[in-house]
Design brief:
The complex is a heterodimer of chains A (269) and B (262). Chain A is 38% helix and 23% strand. Chain A contains eight helices and ten strands. Chain B is mainly α. Chain B has one domain: MetI-like (MetI-like fold), CATH 1.10.3720.10. Chain B starts with a helix and ends in a 13-residue tail after the last helix. The chains are: A alpha/beta (269), B mainly alpha (262).
């Protein structure tokens, strides 16, 4: 069974008004369990919209989305996925452990069980001594780790991430990417990951989905066969650079196409 | 706070205060200003210590009026802000009016209240303080309940949280700093309103009315000692609201809540 199936999905914002935007048109995508899929493309290509459709934070205008074989709405209600955003989005009145416990609280877990799981998660993201800290006492990278711990707290099989490392500096970012891969290898979690960064997409993913704007559509899906055990050395391999070039060229042709055909709108760059 | 921190925060304003008071004293003595024009700080202090019991009694009257108004206005403001949050239409109707009312000196309404109650009643003053506090609390708390971080809203939706969960886990905690910002503004305002309301009639038992009656009797130093009492009462209210805020905000680091001043 596929972890995610996106079946001929279109999304129109503000239909029938002068502000109508065709955010996504005819999206087809299947994601297998254990896959790490990055969505990459220029601003306005609908990658975040696609992620939110999978999360059932918004409803498709046409088509349907299946998560773990059920409707996206049911999967959300069952908390089948965890989610992390560009902003860590920690609740600043809750301690680190209380933040991680929040999804479990809403599932009705008792306190002892929640505490134990929060501690387990803090060890997973290598912050075992920070349970009682308040979010503002943590650096940006540490806050993002807590957000990942919170997203994984209920042991979901699917992790949805919207540019989670976008606000971090380059060094922290590379470090967090390696940690994320580690965690995914340990837990076997499937990941859908929105990013702007080509090296980030290539380093993390088993598949990179290249998207084009106006209207948002998938132009190319690139398999990244760099093996599962990726380390810092992976970033220096020729195969890594080869894939970066491949993704970059796919993105360039996206821009060429949208310039050439015009799609009724003027490209603003 | 360490000793050096204390020295740098307390010493400069204390020095300014001492300089100001000595300048005042020298001015009055040097130019031989008449007490009805401006009494000296030393004569105000003498009048203050001679009339301590009277000033205290008047402060209790004004302070009680302000406190009743502060509590009643806060409770009403919180209650209505929940209604505003729940019903968009009510919000769109009430919020512009509340913001507008916050910007005008509605304390003048007290003369109307004075007509509606017996001349010995403290109700007009308490009602006025309640009304002023109510709008400050309403505008701020409603804002705190509504302006929840978009990421928090999406997260809670991803957890399939019910509207009640969203209220308890996100909206109310988010609104708390807004409430304390409102109280910080409302507490001194309630005291000011209680004083000013006394100028519009009713019993001559509070600080505000004592100031006017002593002025009328040319007991200027005594009038000024009531002014001193009024300053101290306003300060006390302000300090209490700051203390309340510190209890809740020390956990959050810098207080994130904004606020709207009237």
């Amino acid at each position: 069974m596929n972890a995610v199936v996106v079946n001929r999905v279109s999304k129109v914002f503000n239909p029938g008004t002068p502000n109508q935007v065709d955010a996504l048109v005819d999206i087809e995508l299947s994601i297998e369990p254990g896959d790490f899929v990055s969505l990459i493309g220029p601003s306005g290509c609908g990658k975040s919209t696609l992620l939110r459709l999978i999360a059932n934070l918004i409803e498709p205008s046409q088509g349907d989305v299946l998560v773990n074989g059920k409707s996206a709405a049911q999967a959300r209600i069952d908390q089948d996925y965890g989610m992390a955003f560009q902003q860590a989005g920690l609740f600043d009145w809750r301690s680190v452990e209380k933040n991680i416990e929040l999804p479990l609280e809403l599932k009705g877990w008792d306190k002892a069980k929640r505490r134990a799981r929060a501690q387990e998660m803090l060890e997973l993201v290598k912050l075992p001594d920070f349970a009682r800290h308040m979010p503002w006492q943590l650096s940006g990278g540490m806050q993002q780790r807590v957000a990942i711990a919170r997203a994984l707290a209920a042991h979901p099989q699917l992790l949805l991430m919207d540019e989670p490392f976008g606000a971090l500096d380059e060094m922290t970012r590379e470090h967090m990417q390696a940690e994320l891969l580690n965690i995914c290898n340990q837990t076997g979690t499937t990941v859908v990951f929105v990013t702007h960064s080509i090296p980030e997409a290539v380093y993390l993913s088993t598949r990179v989905v290249v998207m084009s704007p106006r209207p948002g559509r998938i132009t190319e899906i690139i398999d990244v066969d760099l093996g599962r055990d990726r380390t810092e050395d992976t970033r220096e391999r020729d195969a890594f650079y080869g894939k970066i070039t491949e993704v970059r060229e796919a993105l360039r042709s996206v821009e060429a196409v949208s310039h050439g055909a015009g799609f009724g709108g003027v490209d603003d760059r | 706070m360490n000793t050096r921190g204390l020295a740098t925060t307390v010493v400069p304003p204390a020095v300014v205060g001492v300089l100001f008071l000595s300048g005042w004293e020298l001015l009055v003595r040097g130019f031989d200003l008449k007490p009805y024009f401006l009494p000296s700080p030393s004569s105000i202090w003498t009048a203050f210590s001679d009339n301590l019991q009277l000033v205290w009694d008047a402060a209790v009257v004004s302070g009680t009026n302000a406190l009743v108004g502060l509590i009643a206005g806060t409770l009403l403001g919180i209650a209505l802000s929940f209604v505003l949050m729940r019903f968009r239409l009510v919000n769109d109707l009430v919020t512009p009016m509340a913001v507008a009312l916050n910007a005008i000196p509605i304390v003048v309404l007290v003369s109307i209240f004075v007509n509606q109650y017996q001349s010995t009643s403290e109700m007009p003053r308490r009602l006025m303080a309640t009304l002023v506090v109510f709008f400050i609390v309403l505008v701020n708390v409603a804002k705190g309940l509504r302006q929840v971080h978009p990421t928090h809203v999406e997260l809670l939706r991803s957890y399939a949280a019910s509207p009640l969960d969203v209220l308890v886990k996100a909206r109310i905690p988010n609104a708390l700093p807004y409430l304390f910002t409102a109280l910080k503004i409302a507490a001194p305002t309630a005291v000011i309103t209680a004083f000013v309301a006394e100028y519009f009639g009713g019993r001559q038992n509070g600080l505000g009315s004592r100031i006017t009656s002593n002025m009328a009797n040319s007991k200027n130093a005594v009038a000024w000692s009531y002014v001193l009492g009024a300053c101290l009462l306003g300060l006390a209210f302000y300090l209490i609201s700051i203390a309340l805020e510190n209890i809740t905000s020390h956990k959050r680091g810098s207080a994130p809540g904004g606020g709207t001043t009237p």
